């Protein structure tokens, strides 16, 4: 009877050991994955930061104004209030 | 015998059984003890593993990524300055025996490397920079080359996507990312504060408004062949700077040192005699002290008065300047009338009022380039001439600030470029005086006014502009006294009934523009005012988008007209 108890305890321990071993290895694998993903996130973030600067440069008013002058001069004309004739004055 | 034998056998069996039993018990105990020890060890190990963390890989990066200097953004979130990572191509001499073959390899792949001028042999350095700021294509080429001696060196650089646009405000950083001018220098510690590197520094500036002001000012420098120009647009009720331009300027991304003093910030650093805009303060002081009203008439004003042995002349005197009300004194910009007002108000009151406006104090703004005006020595003549801005110098920023106090209801506000910095307010004049002053200043700009004011070229329909001009002779650089060159100012505010914005325009040594006016006059009314009008016309719609008050004023004025 006592031997049975010891055997069960031994088996439980063995199972515990094996599962911890597996768990540990799995965790390590996941940690490695996380590390890789983190590295990826960093390089992506770095890229986003560069893109932000690029967007800021591409959308800066000076550049847009030059492009508008080059391509939109026939489509858009500045409209000032003194150029508008109201209905009453007509 | 048999029995005995049996008995003997029995005893023998018993004793051997006992012996065997003892041996088994010992063995069992040993096994149990061993198990217990192993069990205890394993238990201990399990508990240890439960608490142990260092055994696992802990990410050192924590996916947090920051540059060593914060971004600077405008009020709309547009990036004005930002650090990015760049790579340089470097040659590590210790890793190569035949340098020339590596250089040839580098030259084939990167044609712009000047290999002939690289003094490799004489240099003691183990690393030589072959090419700075590699493009992404060049970066990939280096990786593909796989040459151990050719390395990529990572570093951070500061980028200003708007180039010249915020030249004087933002300033520059050196190669070690330390601020060396402008805001970069003033806020160096704040920008490098490691506790919140991910939070950008937000300014009150507006990149779109800044561009419109910049463009008009640049055009004006060309139109009037001026040495330079400057403009400040300030929120009259908060003291926040929305736009600040000073020309000429430089591209912040380039490391070229300009030694000419013409490149100093005319908005914050330059100290100038600002001329007749000071008449606004003279009249405000007298009205506040209840010495005059805007309709008080000054009769028989002369062409010249003497202060001791020094004559004070009226500018372009004619008969229409003989009898003037206080309003007319400002509209016609009468020097003699202003002197009469100071005499009535009292020299001391006038001095105190100018001092309360802190015109001669060190300005407060988050840029490194600031100048403290020289302490004025208040003699009698000096006090009188200060009434029309002669003999006293200050910066454009201090003038804009003081002007803001006159038009915003009487509160002098601290100026700031940062969006979220609280500003202090100090009452200078009463609300009533401020309203009267706004009416007088409107009369100077209103093109429908019978008395033609010097600011009428800035009377932009729909914005109800108020303002005062100033034309000052520049002190001579070589000899005592004044040169022939002039400096023109126009300080405006709009809309008239509840001024929200103060705009100051300065033109440095403008010339006549016959191509625009068909004459060669060069006073402020013919350049600074015109430029301010053009600026208001351009920025007005952009400002009105975010400003319900201005939109309503615009709509109501358009209806009346």
Which helices and strands occur, and which strands form pairs?
The complex is a heterodimer of chains A (90) and B (561).
Chain A: H1 2-58, H2 61-71
Chain B: H1 2-51, E1 72-73, E2 79-92, H2 99-109, E3 127-131, H3 136-145, E4 150-159, H4 167-170, H5 182-186, H6 188-191, E5 201-202, H7 207-223, E6 228-235, E7 241-247, E8 271-273, H8 279-288, E9 297-298, E10 304-307, E11 310-313, E12 324-325, H9 326-331, H10 335-345, H11 347-356, H12 380-386, E13 393-395, H13 396-407, E14 411-413, E15 425-427, H14 431-445, E16 466-475, E17 482-494, E18 501-508, H15 514-517, H16 528-545, H17 548-560
Parallel strand pairs in B: 1-5
Antiparallel strand pairs in B: 1-2, 2-3, 2-4, 6-7, 6-18, 8-13, 9-12, 10-11, 14-15, 16-17, 17-18
Structure description:
The complex is a heterodimer of chains A (90) and B (561). Chain A has 90 residues and is mostly helical. Chain A has helices at residues 2-58, 61-71. Helices cover 76% and strands 0% of the residues of chain A. Chain B is of the alpha+beta class and 561 residues long. Chain B folds into two domains: 84-159; 210-560, 3-Layer(aba) Sandwich (Beta-lactamase), CATH 3.40.710.10. Chain B has 17 helices and 18 strands. Chain B has helices at residues 2-51, 99-109, 136-145, 167-170, 182-186, 188-191, 207-223, 279-288, 326-331, 335-345, 347-356, 380-386, 396-407, 431-445, 514-517, 528-545, 548-560; strands at 72-73, 79-92, 127-131, 150-159, 201-202, 228-235, 241-247, 271-273, 297-298, 304-307, 310-313, 324-325, 393-395, 411-413, 425-427, 466-475, 482-494, 501-508. In chain B, strands 1, 2, 3, 4 and 5 form a five-stranded mixed beta sheet that branches. In chain B, strands 7-6-18-17-16 form a five-stranded antiparallel beta sheet, sandwiched between helices. In chain B, strands 8-13 form a two-stranded antiparallel ribbon. The radius of gyration of chain B is 39 Å and the shape is elongated. At the A-B interface, α1 and α2 of A face α1, β2 and α7 of B.
